[in-house]
């Protein structure tokens, strides 16, 4: 199963840290893998109005459905607290 979510106001570094705290290990290519799941991260600057830019991190979760349900929920809670 594959799920993709985007979060504004956090960095890829912080997203990796959250995933490590959730049991993942950062691979040489920057992806994070855990027991039954893998996550890839990408980021870009997005404009918010005429003068403000934020970093938007896209997180692609892959794994079995039961594992992803709890992983995506736990990651989302951490990311929402950080990004506002």
Structure write-up:
The protein is of the alpha+beta class and 84 residues long. The protein has one domain (2-83): Ribosomal Protein S8, Chain: A, domain 1 (2-Layer Sandwich), CATH 3.30.1370. It is 35% helix and 43% strand. The protein has helices at 12-21, 65-83; strands spanning 2-8, 25-26, 32-34, 37-48, 52-63. The protein has a five-stranded antiparallel β-sheet, with helices on one face. The protein is elongated, with a radius of gyration of 13 Å. The mean pLDDT is 93.
CATH superfamily: Molybdopterin cofactor biosynthesis MoaD-related, C-terminal domain
CATH architecture label name: 2-Layer Sandwich
The total count of strands amounts to 5
Low-confidence stretches: none
Alpha plus pi helix count? 2
CATH topology name, in short, is Ribosomal Protein S8, Chain: A, domain 1
State the order of secondary-structure elements, H for helix, E for strand: EHEEEEH
Structural class, from helix and strand content? alpha+beta
Largest sheet: 5 strands, antiparallel
Quote the beta fraction. 35-45%
Detail the topology: elements first, then pairings.
Elements lengths: L1 E7 L3 H10 L3 E2 L5 E3 L2 E12 L3 E12 L1 H19 L1
Antiparallel strand pairs: 1-5, 2-3, 3-4, 4-5
Features:
84 residues, alpha+beta, Ribosomal Protein S8, Chain: A, domain 1, 35% helix, 43% strand
Question: What is the compact description of this entry?
Answer:
This protein is an alpha+beta fold and 84 residues long. The protein contains two helices and five strands, in the order E-H-E-E-E-E-H.
